[in-house]
Amino acid sequence: MMLGGEILSVGVFLAAFGACALAVQSLSVRYGTITSSASDALIVGLGINVLVLVPAAFLLGSPIENLTLRSLAAFTAAGLLGTMVGRAMHFEGIKRIGSSRAEPIKASQPLHASLIAVVVLGEVVTGGHVLSMIAIVVGIAVITYEHGRSDDDTSDSGYIGIAIPFVAAFFYGIEPTFAKLGLAEGTAVLTGLMIKTVSAGLGFLIYLWWTEGLPDPRTFERSEVPWLVAAGVANTLFLLGYYGALELEPVSLVVPLVQSSPLVVILLSVLLVSDDLERITPRLAAGALIAVAGAIGVTLLS
Question: Which of 121, 123, 182, 254 reaches 20 to 30 Å from 278, CA-CA?
Fold first, then answer.
């Protein structure tokens, strides 16, 4: 928990870093799933997670020594619910309606996460804290509306397309509580990430094997593979920042700060996209200011 004047603590910095990495992931998935499926993006991302995090857990610590049955169960649940189901829905939402819409809708996660944290972990959320989280959601809702108006008509923006990121937000909202329970057992961050990603990877492979058969990497669209790899690397960096922040700060602070990523998505889109897809308008600027004010309020009131 932060002390009075320590607004820019290590935990806050890690959460902000996670938000930036999450934005890069979102844009990479968008460009990497033009013809590829969201499943392809999830497989590549989980593969990179495992390749980086499993060796790191053993090289930088002793994961078995710090592991308890409760932390094993908690991180496995976080992997299956958040990393597998939540990320699958998130990527599918990006593919259907674009990152500029899916990312802000998914950012309603703080409401789910904070309420669950209050009930399960006993964390205290003040009235000002709630208002700040609502400001984040209102701000990103305005961004979603205004920024989405400039998207082309090829995106699947029907009710199903809009609903998918909300489903992702719900499962992402459940994950931090399980992660916090696992960390409370004294389990190291890298150990938790290892268990989370391995359980998600195995769970998703079993799901694919049972439903449609395991994919052949040789069939992936070659021009989109670099984007999928970039998304996997960005997600790995996000996980390191995110879990590092969760180890230092409460869920009700970390999650809302991480969900400021839609602002970074829009900024990167404006800087990197060379057409008229991203137009800065007064309404868009107002939405960004509301969301940023909410993020600052969460930080100051926590």
Answer: 254
Range of the domain at 148: 10-301
Would 140 be classed as within a structural domain?
A: yes
284 or 275, which is more confident?
A: 284
Say what the pTM is. Answer: 0.79
Short-list 170, 164, 173, CA closest to 97: 164
Instruction: For residue range 106-135, list pLDDT tens digits in order.
Output: 777 766 666 676 776 676 777 777 787 788
Average pLDDT over residues 170-198: 87
Q: How far apart are CA 19 and CA 138, in angstroms?
A: 18
DSSP string, 40-107: HHHHHHHHHHHHHHHHHHHHSS-TTTT--HHHHHHHHHHIIIIIIIIHHHHHHHHHHH-HHHHHHHHT
Whole-number pLDDT of residue 199: 95
In one letter, which amino acid is 243? Y
Q: Are 135 and 297 in contact (CB under 8 A)?
A: yes
Tell whether 4 is covered by a domain: no
Quick check: 50 and 197 in contact, CB under 8 A?
yes
The whole-number pLDDT of residue 238 equals 92
Q: With respect to residue 107, please indicate whether it lies within any of the assigned structural domains.
A: yes
| CA 45/CA 55 separation, integer angstroms | 16
Average pLDDT, integer, range 143-167: 63
Determine the Cα–Cα distance for residues 146 and 241; give it in Å rounded to an integer. 30
| 2 found inside a domain | no
pLDDT of residue 203 exceeding 90: yes
**In this structure, which amino acid lies at residue 69?**
L
Residue 178 has pLDDT above 60, yes or no: yes
| Number of domains, the chain | 1
The b/e string for 266-297 (b: 16+ C-beta within 10 A; e otherwise) is bebbeeeeeeeebeeeeebeebbebbeebbeb
